[in-house]
Design a protein that fits this description.
about 80 residues, 4 strands, alpha+beta, single chain
């Protein structure tokens, strides 16, 4: 995941906003990346979250993503 951090920077992030169910707010999922330690953490609408919480929310929305970000996200949880 540290390959997603800009050269010369110590940190970076990947963020996605998903449309929420009718009558509910959108979900903002952010993965904060640290290049030197090759570690990361998640936030859901600005609050700390685990990878499992993110997977559950995506399942609730019936999100079936087959892109690189999602595949890498789940493999590093």
């Amino acid at each position: 995941m540290n390959l997603f951090v800009k050269n010369g920077s110590e940190t970076g992030y990947i963020e996605i906003e998903l449309k929420g169910p009718v009558g509910k707010s959108n979900l903002v999922i952010r993965r904060n990346l640290k290049a030197s330690s090759k570690s990361s953490s998640f936030t859901l609408n600005g609050a700390a979250a685990t990878g499992n919480e993110i997977k559950l929310k995506m399942a609730e929305l019936n999100v079936q993503v087959g892109n690189l970000w999602y595949d890498l996200q789940l493999s590093y949880v």
